[in-house]
Amino acid sequence: MLSKKDVTDLVYERKRQAGLSWASIAEGIGMSEVFTTSACLGMNALPRDKADLLVTNLGLPQEAAVTLAEYPTKVWDRSVPTDPCIYRFYEIVGVYGDTLKELVQEKCGNGIMSAIDFHMEVEKVPNPKGDRIEVRMSGKYLAYNAW
Amino acid sequence: MLSKKDVTDLVYERKRQAGLSWASIAEGIGMSEVFTTSACLGMNALPRDKADLLVTNLGLPQEAAVTLAEYPTKVWDRSVPTDPCIYRFYEIVGVYGDTLKELVQEKCGNGIMSAIDFHMEVEKVPNPKGDRIEVRMSGKYLAYNAW
Amino acid sequence: MLSKKDVTDLVYERKRQAGLSWASIAEGIGMSEVFTTSACLGMNALPRDKADLLVTNLGLPQEAAVTLAEYPTKVWDRSVPTDPCIYRFYEIVGVYGDTLKELVQEKCGNGIMSAIDFHMEVEKVPNPKGDRIEVRMSGKYLAYNAW
Amino acid sequence: MLSKKDVTDLVYERKRQAGLSWASIAEGIGMSEVFTTSACLGMNALPRDKADLLVTNLGLPQEAAVTLAEYPTKVWDRSVPTDPCIYRFYEIVGVYGDTLKELVQEKCGNGIMSAIDFHMEVEKVPNPKGDRIEVRMSGKYLAYNAW
Amino acid sequence: MLSKKDVTDLVYERKRQAGLSWASIAEGIGMSEVFTTSACLGMNALPRDKADLLVTNLGLPQEAAVTLAEYPTKVWDRSVPTDPCIYRFYEIVGVYGDTLKELVQEKCGNGIMSAIDFHMEVEKVPNPKGDRIEVRMSGKYLAYNAW
Amino acid sequence: MLSKKDVTDLVYERKRQAGLSWASIAEGIGMSEVFTTSACLGMNALPRDKADLLVTNLGLPQEAAVTLAEYPTKVWDRSVPTDPCIYRFYEIVGVYGDTLKELVQEKCGNGIMSAIDFHMEVEKVPNPKGDRIEVRMSGKYLAYNAW
Amino acid sequence: MLSKKDVTDLVYERKRQAGLSWASIAEGIGMSEVFTTSACLGMNALPRDKADLLVTNLGLPQEAAVTLAEYPTKVWDRSVPTDPCIYRFYEIVGVYGDTLKELVQEKCGNGIMSAIDFHMEVEKVPNPKGDRIEVRMSGKYLAYNAW
Amino acid sequence: MLSKKDVTDLVYERKRQAGLSWASIAEGIGMSEVFTTSACLGMNALPRDKADLLVTNLGLPQEAAVTLAEYPTKVWDRSVPTDPCIYRFYEIVGVYGDTLKELVQEKCGNGIMSAIDFHMEVEKVPNPKGDRIEVRMSGKYLAYNAW
Amino acid sequence: MLSKKDVTDLVYERKRQAGLSWASIAEGIGMSEVFTTSACLGMNALPRDKADLLVTNLGLPQEAAVTLAEYPTKVWDRSVPTDPCIYRFYEIVGVYGDTLKELVQEKCGNGIMSAIDFHMEVEKVPNPKGDRIEVRMSGKYLAYNAW
Amino acid sequence: MLSKKDVTDLVYERKRQAGLSWASIAEGIGMSEVFTTSACLGMNALPRDKADLLVTNLGLPQEAAVTLAEYPTKVWDRSVPTDPCIYRFYEIVGVYGDTLKELVQEKCGNGIMSAIDFHMEVEKVPNPKGDRIEVRMSGKYLAYNAW
C-alpha cells in the first residue's frame, strides 16, 4: 500500500505539474490551508470524504485516499529544527515559552492550551514597511485535574 | 548589580504580595502583556522610560530599571521543554513546522517570518464547549538574498 | 518566599518525624494518594483550602500553603530516568507505546488520551505468587481537530 | 526468513483488507488485546500455538508463525517519543515518576514494579463529559536483595 | 523529479569532467561565488533565469533548472561539524559568539545581524608569511521589537 | 586569585559605571575591538603590557592584569547556541559550511582557514534600506600535510 | 537530616582515618563487600539493624543509621561513564550485550536476568601471568508474561 | 566478500533450520559459549582453524571462515541499550559502577579490570524459588603506570 | 564516479586477495604507513602521482586515482568511539587533555599543536614484558593572534 | 579533607607565586612532566613518597600528600572538548582512529594499545619553518582473549 510518504511525494508532483497552490488544493476540498497542507505532508488525517475529493481533484491513484485518511504517526527527526523558516518558530517557543505559560495560566487557571483540539491559520498581511506573516493559533484550554 | 534573574524574583515577589496580574502590570506601563511579561522574565529589554515606570509602579529598587533595560542574553536550558504548557507549543512546531514553511513561502516567496521584528498576543476566548486560548503571532517577512 | 523544593523538603522532614505515610497525609486532606504525593513533590498544585489543611495537619509554616497552591513548572532532568523503579515505567512506554496508540485510536478514533484531564491510582494487590502493583490511569479522550 | 518487521507489515495489510480490529484478532487467538497487538508489532513473542492460530486466522504465510514466536529484541529509536499519543504517556512518567516510586515503595517496601512479569489493559470508558481512556497496569512487586 | 541532491551530484560530475571552478560557474551566470556554490549544493534557490543559464552552461538536463529554483529545506546532520575546514568556523562562533553579540549590540542597539538578508564573500589574500583566507559577511541589522 | 570570570564581572561593572564602550576600551589600550572584547570576556589572553594598561584605564585591582594575561581555557556550554544574535552565526556555519570548504579549497588547495592565526573585525555600515553589520574574518591558510 | 551524600562523605572520612577496608567494614556488619560498599555509596538501603551496627562500628552520628536505611533514588550522571575502571564494564555490556541476551534466553526462555533480585561478588584471583579480577553476578531469571 | 553482518545472518539461518543451540555450536568447535556466540554475532574474531571448523559444521560457504577470522570493528548503536535483557546489565554498571571501582582498587591497587584479556561465562542455576542466571567475568588486573 | 567509500572497499578487497600489508602498500608508493592508510580509508588526499602509482600497484580501476586525490570531507559518526582500540585513544585525550594543554603552552606559549600541519607514526616496540605500541605525533606549534 | 580539586588549586597558586614550570616541579620529584602534571590536575595518583616530596617542595599543607596519592576518579565533562588546544587531539582521534586501529592490529594482531600501562611525553622541537610539538605515546599491546 502507499505510505504517507509516497502520497506526499505524489501530491508534490501533481502540485508542481499543475501549478497549484496549497490554497487552491485546500479550497478544492473545502478545508483550511493549514490543515490540508499538514494532511498532505502526512501529519494529519483527512476525513475520508475529503480524502476522496482530494484524490479526484489531483488525479491521484484511488488507494491514496485510504492513506490520506489513516491516522498518522507524527514523527520529527530533529529535536532542534535546522531550516531557518522552521527554526524561528522553535526560537519563539524558547524565548517566549515561560511567558506563554504565565499568560495562559493567568487568564484561565492551572492548565494548558491543547495542541489536539487546535487549529491554526497563516496569513500574509501587506505592510508598507514590509509585508508581515500572521499566525493565529487557537487551542482549547484544558484544566489540570485534582482528585 | 542586580542580575536579570534577581529582578525577575523581585517582580514575582511584588506581584504576589500586591496580588497583581501581568495584565495590570503591562497596562501600568502602557505596553502589551506578552512583551511586558517576557521583559520581566528577562527575555526582552524594556525601553528605559518604561523600565523606570515599572520600577515606580512595583516599588522596586531604582537600579532594577537599569537591569530591565539591558539587552538580555536569551538562554533556555532544555532543547525539548518538559512543562506540559510549554511542550504543547514545541509539539505544534514539530507537527506543523513543514506546513508553516510551505505556507509562508507560498504566500510570500523564498524567505522566513522574523522572530525579531515580531510581536505576539495571547487571549482567552470564551466558548460554550470550553474556553479557548488564542495566540496571534506577527513577524515581518524577510526574503532570502541572492547575490 | 518558600520554593516548591523548600516545601517538599519540609514535608519529607515532618513525614519522617511523625512517621506518617503518604496515604494518611492524603486522607487527612480528603484527596487521593497520587495527587497529594505529586503536589507535595512539587508536580501539582493543591486547591488552596486543601493546602491550608495540609499545612495545619503537618504543622508547616503558614506560607507553605501559598506555595503548595501555586501552579508548578513541571521539570525533569533526565530524558531517560535512571532509578530502576521509575525506569521500568519508561520501559513500558518504550515497549508498549505503539500498542497504546493502536488501541486508543482503534477504540476512540484519531486522538489521544489526555495527561491533563487525567487521574491515576496505585495499589498493592496481594497475590500468593508474589504481591503485585496495580496502576490505573484514566485520561479524557481528546479527538484531533479537522478544520 | 521473514523479519519481525516483515510480519508486522503483513499483519497491517491483512487487517486493513479484512477490516479487522485488534480486538477481533486478539479474540481469534484467545489472548488479550494489548499482548496480541504488541506481539504483532514485534515487541513480544507469541506462544507457538497462538502464532499458528494467528497465521491461520489472518491467512499469513506459514513461516510467519516462526517469526511471531521468536524472542524479540525490543528497540525504540527515540529516547523522547514525538507522536502526541505516545508522548503523553512519556509525560506521565516524567511528571509522576517520583510519585510512583514513593507509593510503590510505601506500599510494598524497597523494590520496584516489574515490567517483565507484567500485564496491561486499555479500555474506553463512556462518559457524558467526554469518553475516557483507562489503562490498567499490573506488575509483580520485586524487592531489592540485601546480601 | 530530480531532487536537490541529484542536481548537486550532476553539477559535481560536470564540474569535474569539464575541469571547471566554482568561480567560473558563478561568472557564467553572473552571480557571486558563494551564492552560486551554495545553490549548487542545495542550500539556496537560484532565480529561475539564472537556473536556466546554469543548466545551459553545464549541459544539465532541463528539469534541473526547476530543482535549482526551488526553495530548499536547509538541513545539516551534525550539530557539531567534524570536517576540520568547517569545524574551524564553528569554533570561531564558539570562541567569539559573545564578543560578536557585544559588538553588534554596542554598535546598533538591541538586535541581531540577519542571516537571511545576508551575503558573504570568500577570498584568498596572498601574504609573504603565508597566504590568508578572508571571509566577509554582511547582514542587515534587525532591531528587536517592543510592543 | 581572581578568575577570568571575576575579571569579566569587574570589567562589566566599570564599563557600566563609567559609561564606556568596548570601542573606547580597545582604543585605550591600542588594540582592536574584537580582540579586546574577547579578552575581557575571558576568551583570549592580553599581552601583559596591554593587560596592565587596561587595569590602569579601568581602575581594576592590580592582580586583574595577571588574570587577563593568562592563557584561557576556551569553553562554551551549548553545542547549539540559543541567543538569537549568536545563533544566526551558527546558522551561517550550518547553511554555508560546505560552501566555505569548497571555496577555501578551490582557492588554496587541500587545507583549512586557521582559527588560531586569525583576526576579525565587526563594523556597522549605514545603509538607506537599513543599516548592515559587516564581519570580516582573516585566517592563515594551512595546507594538510602529506608524508 | 543527613543526606545519602553526607553519610557517604562521613564514611569515607572515618574509613581513611581508621585505615579500614571495605572488606572489614562489611565483615563488621556481617554482610557482603559489594552490598555494604554500595549501601555506603548511597546506592542501596541497609536493613535498619545493619545500619545501626555500621554507625556504631564507624562512630558515625546516630541519625546516619536512618539515612543508611532509607530507600535510595539511584541516579548516575553520565550515560557513558568516563572513569576507565568503570568504563570497561560499560564496554563489556556494549560488546557482549547481544551475546548475553542470546545465552540467557537460550538457557531459560524469553525473559531477563533480574537486576533487583540480584547479588554480585568481586574477587582478586592470583595468577602467575598477572592477577585477575573475578566478578560473579547472580540474578533471578524472570520470564516475560503472555496474557 | 561476506561482511560480518552477512555471516551473522547465515549463522542464524542455519542455527534455526538445524535447531541448534549456541551451546552445541560452541561445543562443535571446542570453544566457550560466550566467545563463540560473540564471534558469530561479529563482536570477536575466531582463530582461523576454529572458523574453518565452524564453517564445516554449519555448512556455511567457505569464505565465511575468512570473515569470521577477521578482526572486528566493535560498534554499538545506542549509548543506552533499550532491550530489557541488555538494559539490566547497563543498569548494573550504573548502580554498581563506583562500587566495582572501590573494590577492584582496594583489592589490587590503582588500576582496572581488563576488558581485553577477559573471559566470561553465563550459566543457568536451578533454584526452587526460581532459577537464576549466573554470569562470571574474569579480567586481568592492569595497574596504572607512573613514570 | 567512484566515491571515497567505493575506493576504500576496493583497496580492502585487493589487499586481502593479494595478502598485502599497509606497510607494503605504503612502501610501494614511497609514503608513510599512517598517511597511506588514512588516504585509503578516505580521510586524506593522495598527491595525484602517488594515487596513480597506488592504482597501478593494486590493479585498481584508473578512475580510482581521481578519487584518491580528491580532497576528502572528514566525517566520523560517533562523538564517542565504541571500538576498544579506538576508544583508548579517546580516553587518553579525556584523561590527558588538560595536561597536554598545560605542557604545550608552557613550552611554546599561548597556542596549539596543529592537526593539519601534522604527521604521525605508529610502531611496534618489542619488549620482554610484553610488546608495546609507540605512537609519535608531530604538529606545528601555532600561536594565537593578538590584534 | 582536601579534595583533588582543592589540591589542584593550591598547586596552581604556588606555581604562579613561585614562577615555577611543570618541568621544574616534575624534576623536583624525579618524575616525568606529563605524569606529574596529570597528577597535579587530579587525573593520576602520585606514589606516596613522591606526593610527600611534592608537598615539601611546593610548601603545600601536609594532608595534600594524602590527596595526591589517592586513586582518582577520572571524569571529563564534555564528550567533545571545546578548547582548541585539546580539541585538535580529539580531531586527530576522529580523523585517524580507523587508521590507528588498522596499523596497531596489522603490526601486533587482534588487540589494542593499553591506555593504562601507558606513558607519554610532550616536547618542543625547534624548526626553522616554525617550532613543532612532538607527542610520544607508548602503551602495552594487549591481545584479545579467545576462550
Automatic annotation (TrEMBL), chains A, B, C, D, E, F, G, H, I, J:
<dbReference type="Pfam" id="PF21291">
    <property type="entry name" value="CYNS_N"/>
</dbReference>
<feature type="active site">
    <location>
        <position position="91"/>
    </location>
</feature>
<comment type="similarity">
    <text>Belongs to the cyanase family.</text>
</comment>
<dbReference type="InterPro" id="IPR003712">
    <property type="entry name" value="Cyanate_lyase_C"/>
</dbReference>
<protein>
    <recommendedName>
        <fullName>Cyanate hydratase</fullName>
        <ecNumber>4.2.1.104</ecNumber>
    </recommendedName>
</protein>
<keyword id="KW-0456">Lyase</keyword>
<dbReference type="InterPro" id="IPR048564">
    <property type="entry name" value="CYNS_N"/>
</dbReference>
<feature type="active site">
    <location>
        <position position="114"/>
    </location>
</feature>
<dbReference type="Pfam" id="PF02560">
    <property type="entry name" value="Cyanate_lyase"/>
</dbReference>
<dbReference type="GO" id="GO:0008824">
    <property type="term" value="F:cyanate hydratase activity"/>
</dbReference>
<dbReference type="InterPro" id="IPR010982">
    <property type="entry name" value="Lambda_DNA-bd_dom_sf"/>
</dbReference>
<comment type="function">
    <text>Catalyzes the reaction of cyanate with bicarbonate to produce ammonia and carbon dioxide.</text>
</comment>
<feature type="domain" description="Cyanate lyase C-terminal">
    <location>
        <begin position="75"/>
        <end position="147"/>
    </location>
</feature>
<dbReference type="InterPro" id="IPR008076">
    <property type="entry name" value="Cyanase"/>
</dbReference>
<feature type="active site">
    <location>
        <position position="88"/>
    </location>
</feature>
<dbReference type="GO" id="GO:0003677">
    <property type="term" value="F:DNA binding"/>
</dbReference>
<dbReference type="InterPro" id="IPR036581">
    <property type="entry name" value="Cyanate_lyase_C_sf"/>
</dbReference>
